[in-house]
Specification:
By secondary structure, the protein is α+β, with helices and mostly antiparallel strands. It has a four-stranded antiparallel sheet with strand order 3-2-1-4, with helices on one face.
């Protein structure tokens, strides 16, 4: 991961390592200027039930009209994606 991307990406992974699922949405633009929502869900798993040893990451790209140019979408961004939403899911008490 390029150092510039680590600043916005690693906090979510750190929360997942602590056992908290994290859902984020970032806004990016495709090569034609269409707004695309980059959705990411990080789900932590622990073989022993306590210590996270795997993170399942699910990624989805969503555009309002359903049509976007996904070719090198994340590589072509000149600036960091804009964070729209970040939710850390706390365990039930």
């Amino acid at each position: 991961m390029p150092p510039a991307r680590q600043i916005e990406s690693l906090p979510a992974y750190r929360q997942a390592v602590l056992g908290r699922p994290v859902y984020t949405i970032h806004d990016v633009n495709d090569r034609n200027g269409r707004l695309v929502h980059y959705e990411r869900l990080l789900l932590p798993f622990a073989a022993d039930g306590r210590t996270v040893d795997r993170i399942l990451a699910s990624f989805e790209l969503v555009c309002a009209d359903g049509a976007f140019d996904g070719h090198e979408l994340m590589k072509s961004q000149s600036a960091a994606p804009t964070l729209r939403l970040s939710v850390t899911i706390e365990p039930a008490a």
